[in-house]
Design brief:
By secondary structure, the protein is of the alpha+beta class. The chain has a single domain, classed as YaeB-like fold (2-Layer Sandwich), CATH 3.30.2310.20. It is built from three helices and five strands. It has a five-stranded mixed sheet with strand order 1-5-4-3-2. It is globular and about 40 Å long.
Length: 98
């Protein structure tokens, strides 16, 4: 299986920068696992159906896989308690006309 490259949205990059060093390491380890097999995450449903979620401990990484280009696009990283709600709000904001 080919090794996938990871790309971050600006929002995901910003979230990583705000995490504690221990949590950053947890996320980094999870991303290494995803690079080897990006299909380990769970498929999301409803309006998030085009995304997957990987669950390192109490955190969630929301991402999509581009098999053709061998990319894992990281869209959102957050604590499990509100990550899906916050990601939906972000998507809604992106859909609003300027």
């Amino acid at each position: 299986m080919k090794r996938f490259k990871i790309r971050f949205t600006p929002e995901a990059s910003s979230m990583i920068s705000r995490l504690s060093p221990e949590t950053k390491q947890l996320i980094k380890d999870a991303l290494k696992t995803l690079q080897k097999n990006p299909f380990l995450g769970d498929d999301l449903h409803e309006e998030l159906a085009s995304f997957k979620s990987f669950k390192p401990k109490r955190y969630r990484i929301i991402y999509a896989v581009d098999e053709e280009k061998a990319y894992i696009n990281i869209y959102y990283i957050g604590h499990r308690r509100d990550v899906y709600e916050q990601f939906r709000l972000l998507l809604d904001d992106l859909k609003k006309p300027i």
